[in-house]
């Protein structure tokens, strides 16, 4: 079935735009681009800006009365009832280093007339495209989530110990972010924690059952809008770190297959409270033990 024949309302046109944008990213990736700093370790390239311009133009042609809110600065028709959150290149650090994991992300929100600026509307459509793997993740509210037009569902794994999960770290103010502690604790309690560098793909992978869960501390709506709808439509659950409802501008996002969500929330509670943390040696203790082992084996060789 083609995307147009599927009965979807926005995905057919949006996925054509994401595919064109992805093809452009792939060209830039192949030829290599120079990197600039927006702040701290927050990188930007000509690919981010060119592809945002392209999406801006194409969305304007396809949906002339829709608004656009995009990472590299596009703010258009924000009074409109419909608003696209666009990340033209999610995974810029990967892209800049030649690490082949990044995507285009576009999520559509419905904002009824009169909705206060600080209130969320309803997410209606999602498109996330990975041009290197040619993987197109799509969703529309009430119509399920798909990968290359085949339905996807979250995984059926029921416990954290058997889960592969994911997180990310901010590219600004890194020294005031505690996520490394959560990374450590969840690594010791699961099959592993991936930090692959694209929040939108992390969410798409939760929707596709490749990850059981994903959390991050400080994301923006262009990182999450599309992925959140994908996870919801694939049967997953999304909250903040204490189980409250998520918002597009939430500082915390915890998404999962639903089945391990309460267990994750329990551990978030423990970690925030400093309770039952897994004991591991400090680097200094490790170095002291290593030196002691070396001294013992030197003595036994002499004797
Ligand atoms: C970043 C990626 C990364 C996440 C960062 C985001 P960008 O987006 O999604 O995985 O950890 O917090 O800022 O800068 O590559 O669009
Ligand atoms: Ca991003
Ligand atoms: Ca980006």
Model description:
The chain has eight helices and 15 strands. The protein has helices at residues 11-31, 46-62, 92-97, 179-189, 199-207, 221-233, 261-273, 283-302; strands at 35-39, 42-45, 67-70, 75-76, 82-90, 103-110, 122-130, 135-140, 145-147, 150-152, 164-167, 192-194, 213-216, 237-239, 253-256. The strands form three sheets. The protein has an eight-stranded mixed beta sheet, with helices on both faces. It has a five-stranded mixed beta sheet with strand order 12-11-13-15-14, sandwiched between helices. The model is unreliable at 1-5 (pLDDT under 50). Bound molecules: D-MYO-inositol-1-phosphate (IPD) and calcium ion (2 copies). The site of one calcium ion has 6 residues, from strand 5.
Condensed summary:
By secondary structure, this protein is of the alpha+beta class.
The CATH H-level homologous superfamily of the largest domain: Fructose-1,6-Bisphosphatase, subunit A, domain 1
- Helical run tally: 8
Low-confidence stretches: 1-5
Quickly count the domains: 2
Supply the CATH class of the largest domain: Alpha Beta
CATH architecture level-2 label of the largest domain: 2-Layer Sandwich
Mean pLDDT: 94
Largest sheet: 8 strands, mixed
Outline: globular
Provide the CATH topology of the largest domain: Fructose-1,6-Bisphosphatase, Chain A, domain 1
Q: How widely separated are the two ends?
A: 77 Å
Helix content: 25-40%
Class by alpha and beta content: alpha+beta
Q: Give the names of the bound compounds.
A: D-MYO-inositol-1-phosphate, calcium ion
Number of E strands: 15
Strand fraction equals 15-25%
């Amino acid at each position: 079935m083609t995307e147009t024949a599927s009965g979807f309302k926005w995905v057919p046109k949006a996925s054509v735009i994401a595919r064109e944008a992805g093809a452009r990213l792939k060209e830039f990736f192949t030829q290599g681009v120079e990197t600039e700093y927006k702040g701290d370790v927050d990188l930007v390239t000509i690919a981010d800006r060119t592809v945002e311009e392209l999406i801006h133009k194409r969305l304007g042609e396809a949906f002339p009365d829709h608004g656009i809110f995009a990472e590299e600065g596009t703010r258009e028709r924000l009074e409109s009832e419909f608003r696209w959150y666009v990340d033209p290149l999610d995974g810029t650090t990967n892209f800049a280093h030649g690490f082949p994991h990044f995507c285009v992300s576009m999520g559509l929100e419905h904002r009824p007339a009169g909705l206060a600026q600080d209130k969320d509307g309803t997410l209606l459509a999602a498109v996330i495209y990975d041009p290197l793997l040619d993987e197109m993740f799509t969703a529309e509210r009430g119509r399920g989530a798909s990968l290359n037009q085949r339905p996807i569902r979250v995984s059926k794994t029921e416990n954290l110990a058997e889960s592969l999960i994911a997180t990310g770290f901010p590219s600004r103010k890194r020294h005031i972010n505690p996520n490394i502690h959560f990374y450590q604790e969840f690594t010791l309690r699961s099959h592993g924690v991936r930090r692959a560098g694209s929040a939108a793909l992390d969410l798409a992978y939760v929707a596709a059952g490749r990850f059981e869960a994903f959390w991050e501390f400080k994301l923006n709506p262009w990182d999450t809008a599309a992925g959140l709808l994908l996870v919801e439509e694939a049967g997953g659950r999304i909250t903040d770190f204490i189980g409250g409802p998520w918002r597009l501008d939430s500082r915390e996002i915890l998404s999962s297959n639903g089945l391990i969500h309460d267990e994750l929330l329990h551990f978030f509670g423990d970690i925030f409270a400093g309770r039952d943390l897994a004991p591991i040696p400090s680097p200094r203790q490790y170095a002291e033990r290593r030196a002691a082992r070396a001294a013992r084996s030197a003595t036994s060789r002499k004797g």
